[in-house]
Write a structure and sequence with these properties.
alpha/beta; Lysozyme-like; binds zinc ion
């Protein structure tokens, strides 16, 4: 046929460079959501890792401050290390980071001489793994001061009470940090942080809002906590992380605290906070009953525990 133009189909070959696996002690597990590990380009290595008490595959000198050079944190036998980790670590503790985004959180932890967190969960759902889970991070000591030895931690990006002018203590803000734009609540992210997100142009909108005011308010460990919700992308990644962590470390069961007395998910510190095996919040393990240990409220009043419970407990039945 004259005049017909044939064009060869253009073959676009995208090199798949997005990592979706978390890793520990030579094990790797695909959790189906974007993960940037500490060895990846753009990764955020934990500034202050520590050795877990009683674990044998590192020199005990690494258990306490001061922070050593990154090269010092070597795992001798990863097979044995993984066994120890599986036997002894039984909690995944959720936090809000009281920061604008994960890069902001990383900077705050870098400025400290001892703080860290195994994971950061950014506004756009990107998960950063900062170190091998074999190591301890000082993220939440719990009321017995031993909380970090038995746990893996995730700092989820959310300003928490710091977003409200009337509650903010860390930052000098002149107005609330969430506002309604075209009918939707949105975090007003400063330019320097906006450019650090892996998703260009991402708008951080709360997954749920409360009435006209937008933010949620509940009393946690004796304090009223007002905050806007986490993003939909964060919930989706967090659910994948919970399912993955359970497969990697089965003593972290797919369950969250439930109070028989209250007949609901509690927000305050629970009585069995040190023996509980599963997924729980910083506020569940720490209300500051011991000298030098502060009362904690995260992941806070907006966190949708009901959604997480439904998502992970259904999975446990399937498994
Ligand atoms: Zn916390």
């Amino acid at each position: 046929m004259e005049g017909a133009v044939y064009t060869l189909p253009e073959t676009i070959h995208h090199e798949c460079t997005v990592n979706t696996s978390i890793k520990t002690c030579g094990q790797k597990l695909d959790i189906g959501t974007q993960v940037v590990t500490w060895t990846d380009s753009g990764g955020l290595p934990c500034p202050n890792p520590r050795g877990r008490q009683g674990f044998t595959q590192h020199p005990p000198a690494l258990n306490d401050a001061p922070t050593r050079e990154p090269e010092a944190y070597k795992i001798r036998n990863t097979t044995r290390a993984y066994e120890e980790l599986k036997q002894r670590v039984h909690q995944l503790v959720l936090h809000y980071d009281a920061c604008y985004c994960s890069h902001h959180c990383h900077q705050v932890l870098k400025d400290s001489s001892f703080l860290g967190s195994h994971f950061y969960l950014d506004l756009d759902g990107t998960l950063y793994q900062t170190c091998d889970l074999y190591w301890k991070t000082n993220t939440g000591p719990g009321d017995d001061g031993r909380g970090n030895d038995r746990a893996v931690h995730v700092e989820i990006a959310n300003l928490g009470p710091e977003a409200l002018v009337k509650d903010a203590e860390l930052y000098q803000i002149k107005q609330d940090q969430y506002r309604v734009i075209n009918g939707q609540w949105e975090l007003a992210l400063p330019g320097k942080f906006r450019d650090t997100l892996r998703t260009p142009g991402f708008k951080a909108r709360p997954a749920r809002t409360f009435g006209e005011r937008g933010y949620f308010s509940r009393t946690i460990n004796g304090k009223t906590i007002r905050m806007w919700d986490f993003t939909e992308e964060q919930y989706q990644s967090l659910i994948q992380l919970c399912l993955g962590i359970h497969r990697l470390l089965p003593k972290i069961k797919l369950r969250i605290p439930f109070s028989k007395k209250l007949q609901r998910i509690p927000l305050d510190r629970i009585d069995n906070f040190s023996s509980f095996s599963g997924i729980l919040g910083h506020s569940h393990i720490q209300k500051g009953t011991r000298k030098g240990i502060h009362s904690k409220y995260d992941p806070g009043s907006a966190f949708d525990w009901g959604r997480l419970k439904k998502a992970i407990e259904n999975q446990e039945r399937v498994a």
